[in-house]
Amino acid sequence: MSTTKSAELVKRAELERPTRLTKSLESFAALREGHITNARDRLIEYGHWAKAINEANSHIAVGEKEIAAAADAYKEVAEHLAANLSWPPESISIMTQGSVSTKTLIRSPNGGEKFDIDAVCKVDISLIEADDPMSFFESIGQALEELEAQAKRRCWYIPFNRQPFYLEFTPSVPLNTITAQTLQSMALRYHASRYGETALAVVDTPTQGWKTSNSAGMSQWVNDTAERRLIQSIVMEAYANDRAEASVAPVPDQTVDITDTLRVAIRLFKRHRDMCARRGVIDAATKPISVIIVTLLTSCYEGLADLGRSFEHPIELLDELAALMPHLVLKLDGKYRVDNPTVEGENFAEKWNDDDGERYRSFMTWSKTLSADLKTILALTDPQTISKRVREVFGIPAPTGGGNGLPTIQPPAPRATPASRGLA
Fold it and tell me: Do the beta carbons of residue 392 and residue 299 sit within 8 Å?
């Protein structure tokens, strides 16, 4: 029987990882023996943690009104392109990508800081002349000049000064529609693998050539993996029937519940990373980029599912993801690797190999801090103390007024990494 790549990564990580973060997360055998009363008792115990985590998850989520405003913004961009270019309107389609499409977008812990909305502009070049990648890229920028678009490596940055977000807009071409001449000009080491039907060719401005990308495939991979349930059904039934008894109440307007553990983990871990950067635990310039966190967590979750692992509560699964995640990073021939599961040959950790190990050390310092913080939370038993500690760790204002609402937790010292030369 063949084993999937994610399963192999998890098996390797299980051999390298430490024990569970706390003895509080022991399997409650009473459930397996059919003693439902004991299971409910454990659900109540777990419920204090779950309630606090759910509150943090709700706080860091971006509101539906803001998401709707962002959707209107990228539709406006599409109309702007159609009006300013001589391309047929039917040749242009625009869609969100990244954290918006996987429901893992989070607010910044720095008050007033904008969040980013990633979008991709997909153009059918069978209807236009676009064999030259830089001409194609620059024509998009010229059409968006009135929106103050600024060129980045593969996208155009649009500030939307009066909105709480900015747009990063990537011009692209469906890979299955490009000409043979264009295909031959692309980097041969990058090939679409999983979800190949959504693969795109994007412009890589440093090389002035086309490069394979598959943002929609990445999003679909996360979404498909999140639908795989690792929590034992009998416990989830008890969890659903006894929410009040377990002190876990649904949060108003909550679109991702703690039972959707992969997405919650992505949200919370990204927030924890941002708090570590804010507190000086890691250098903001070398903090782990979101796509690495998403890839490692989704690979870990997928591998656990492929291996038939099961868990009795979302808190147990959250703990397992935190413990295994850092051990899924590969080091081959002295080079760190976090492979893009949808584009063969693309290494999301490529910059880790060009900075004397700064980004890797930053990643490991953050991972250890995350485990230490979760261990502290899961060692507590008093509901109010748990809630307070969760708010401190994830930078959530207290539920009552007063002061500036910022947590009082003191950051560890010294800093993990020296100053960096550029952004991660």
Answer: no
Per-residue pLDDT of the chain (424 residues; tens, 9 = 90+): 457 999 999 999 988 876 555 444 444 434 444 444 555 666 677 788 889 999 999 899 887 778 778 777 877 787 788 788 877 777 777 777 778 788 888 888 876 678 877 777 787 765 555 567 888 899 889 988 888 999 999 889 999 888 888 888 888 888 877 777 666 666 555 677 788 888 888 888 988 888 888 988 999 999 999 999 898 754 555 545 444 333 322 222 335 678 889 999 999 999 999 999 999 999 999 999 999 999 999 999 999 999 999 887 888 899 899 999 999 999 999 999 999 999 988 999 999 999 999 999 999 999 999 999 998 998 888 999 999 999 999 999 876 543 333 333 333 333 343 333 222 3
Distance CA(248)–CA(236), nearest Å, equals 13
Question: What domains are there in the chain, each with its CATH number?
Answer: 5-62+250-394 (no CATH), 65-221 (3.30.460.10)
pTM of the model: 0.82
Handedness of CA 275, 281, 287, 293 (dihedral sign): negative
Could you tell me which residues come within 8 angstroms of residue 166 by beta carbon, excluding any fewer than 6 positions away?
Answer: 114, 116, 117, 157, 158, 159, 160
Q: Judging by beta carbons within 10 Å of its beta carbon (0-12, 13-18, 19+), is residue 20 exposed, middle or buried?
A: middle
Match 């991979």 to its residue by tokens.
Answer: 221
How many residues in total does the chain contain?
424
